[in-house]
Amino acid sequence: MGDNKGLWLGTKPAKCGGIGRFLLVGLCAIFAATTVLTGNVYLATQAPHQRIPINAQEILGKCAALRQPAGPPADFGDREVSDRFEPGTNTTLIRNARLWTGVNNGTEVIHGDLLLDKGLVKAVGKVPRSLYAFLENVTVIDAKGAWVTPGLVDLHSHVGLLPLPSMRATFDVNSPNGPILPWLRSIDGFNTHDEAFRLGIAGGVTSVQALPGSGNAIGGQAFMMKLRKTRERSPSSMIIDPPHTLSTSGAQVDPSLPPRWRHMKQACGENIKWYGTRMDSIWAFRQAYNEARKVKDAQDEFCSKAEQGAWGSIEGKDFPDDYKWEMLVDVLRGRVKISHHCYEAVDFDDIVRLTNEFQFPIAVFHHASEAYLVPDVLKRSWGGTPAIAIFATNHRYKRESYRGSEFAPRILADNDIRVVMKTDHPVINTRYLLNEAQQAHYYGLPPHLALASVTSTAATAVGMAHRIGFLRVGADADVVLWDSHPLHLGATPVQVWIDGIKQLPEDVQVGTGKDDVAWKEVPRVPDWSKERNATWNWDGLPPLKGRNELGLVVFTNVRTVWTKDNEGEIKEMFAITGEKEELGTVIVQSGKIVCAGSVLSCSENFNSFDPHEVLDLRGGSIVPGLMSYGSPLGIEEIAGEPSTGNGALYDPFTGNTPKILGDTAGVTRAVDALQFRTRNALLAYRSGVTVATSSLSKTTLFVGPNSIIPGLSTTFRTGAAHALEGGAIVKDITALHVNIGRPHPIGGRNGRGPGASVSTEIAALRRLLLEGESKDTETGLWFRRAAEGTIPFVIAVSSADIMATLLKLKVDIEEARGTTMRMVFAHASEAHLLAEEIAKARVGVILIPSRPFPDTWDDRRILPGPPLTNDTALVKLIEHGVTVAIGAQDAWQAGNTRWDLTWAALESNGRIDEQQAYALASTNLEKLLDVRVPRDAADFVAYAGGGALSMSSKVAAVLSSERGMVEFVS
């Protein structure tokens, strides 16, 4: 009968009985299985002299499994208990809710109840009492008509791979070991001690895709994770639907089960150019996929022969496989959802051709700044048009993103391309994923698609719609109860459930001031069709210069006007509060308000002039222009492109400054490096920010400050054409700046090494403030003025411990010199821990960012605010009498200043009113930085459609008496 590899068969079929019956029983089973699996003729009757391997059934089962499509088993919807259910979890009945289910492309809204049990959604809408009456522990929550949605899904996150606070030892996001690394797995570097889990849940985010970085063409395998830590506390236990290839128990997987979706990260463009050019990258892709195709073809050929019964032709051969390329073979078999980092038209064209050459689909293009400009290219992708995962307003941070647009989501949707909003955490804190959807809606994305972009569309794009992203029977019990309609700015979770388990504390006040019915409705937003069309027609770079009017302009239907009093404080000039009252009129001559009030009170002025322009504000408002601080606005055009900026500063702590400067610290002036008409500055201007203070200091997410002593800031008008235009430079030299802190964990100072020690920085500061340098040098002159209090001294510092040291230093310097310093703490993440002491020392604070983020060790002790804490850092500082303002770290963020003010007021639980909110980015900044704009020279901004802090409004015009004109910007 031969060896143990098989049974020698002659020209006659073997019989299951008679001689050798015992030996043939097993083989008959194999033959039967072969007939069932392949549908072929009884194999023993085929070619003579065949050896049937004893593992033939295993081989044929493996071959049959290759044709199984990925996804949940057919009976998945029938499950009664979630595999993630934790015993002891109460059943939860949410009653009287507005349920946004995600069904029907996000258009379905059900008024009713929601039952969560055994980690699953058990009923939606009408919940029969019989479903829960027999259960012992049922928590009943009356939603009182509030909105309930599925848990939010962030498809682009590095949670766990770049855990907070950032540390060099936990930077596990990219590999230096080559461009093609499909065998790497993000789960192998996933850190469970990440502050982002708690913060993300506080924003309603329940699931994320933990992606490897974009430093490799194929960075490795990604995993869909839930942010809830399990009792096991392991990364593996946080995975949603772990692929069968990820062994967690060592148990053999039933080959008849359909494979679960796998996920992989690919990238193209700038980020991988350290391995070569774009041409090198595409060749690396093609070479890798060609190797995978060879393996796939070999497998198919092997299986074809096995299924035809041609065992002799594969005798002694193993099933063709290559552990190195097995992931890409699965890609070619359509079992992998690829997330592809890609920005520009050239990159999309490259990758779309690649998909057609090797016939595999892309699930989602990420970042995709130019995707909206090339919809027809995207539609040529093999296997269907990918979804597009993008930022709302975070653009121009590198050359590839220069043409990114806030109108991209709407343009993509108009082209029937699915839109996903994402954070790229920690680039944007995953906690604020919903804000990306809110901004997309503000700029024109329909509300059902905006909500779907962070729930159902995202889940569907990565093959997880059977579990997450929807409220429907059988889905995972990941649910968020909101304090307002989720698309309202500042919408906050009242409670979050993951797998039916409650996640948020119950003793935090949420939703104060949101009792009005308007908070329950979809927020009304402006019409942006004109701007959207211009963006499309100008290939993503529409002109941003407005239309100037030098003469008389009349604004009608004005609801409120705010102005500045003689002390520079913002005051309400008039307001129409009743819905039936006649709205007001404002008359402007050469950019200056000459009358504001009722039509009757201004009629004399109105009739004595022939207005050049009459603009209906439709219940809008006129408010003093806002101010921005902290970013390199006006210093650079593209953050990641050195050729568009000022260049590197000399840092005396890392090397000697050139002798030609004649100055030890190399103190330089930002005014000398100003650029006007940068797109970030003009977009900020068109968003109501008319003045900005910028220094030469620059800090990015992955690299610490570019210098400990970045020099002297300047203040300028964001809408000015050039430095010689009247009023363009508000203040040549505004403040002296230093950066004090522990070394950045990743980039160090200037990205080089660990940087100077904190004690060294403080020692140098002490010496310079005590006239350690001659006043004939720039360093000596400006540090002397800072010590005397004739110029603000702004210290970028985050740690409360270092702030305490600086407060003591302030006392020492003032006692030694008999002066009073004008010290300001910027960034100041932990300032709330010293609120009383900072107030007593009469030190001001500029919070950057305005909503806290535990980026580094110095930032770790944040006060996160609702729904995690009742207080926010802003509230605590204000209540202790500290003069507080807010700023922005990146230039693109300046355009969102008014939303930061709105959010600050909403998070305060009624303790920051509208006047105080305006002051955070206007008069308070002016006081801290000693920017005294005369009342008659102040800029005003006209908002059409609502107040300055309302999502219903947009900037219509800027009134500038200093420049003698009104500029219409929309």
TrEMBL record:
Whose protein is this, by species?
Neolentinus lepideus HHB14362 ss-1
PANTHER family for the chain: ALLANTOINASE (PTHR43668), AMIDOHYDROLASE 3 DOMAIN-CONTAINING PROTEIN (PTHR43668:SF5)
Q: Is Metal-binding among this UniProt entry's keywords? A: no
User: What Gene Ontology molecular function terms does this protein carry?
Assistant: allantoinase activity
InterPro entries per record: Amidohydro-rel, DHOase/Allantoinase_Hydrolase, Metal-dep_hydrolase_composite, Metal_Hydrolase
Q: List the GO biological process terms.
A: purine nucleobase catabolic process
Q: What is this protein called?
A: Amidohydrolase-related domain-containing protein
Q: Where is the Amidohydrolase-related domain?
A: 395-491
Q: Which UniProt keywords apply?
A: Membrane, Transmembrane, Transmembrane helix
Ranges where the record places region Disordered:
239-258
> What's one GO-annotated cellular component?
cytoplasm
Question: Where is the chain membrane-spanning?
Answer: 21-43
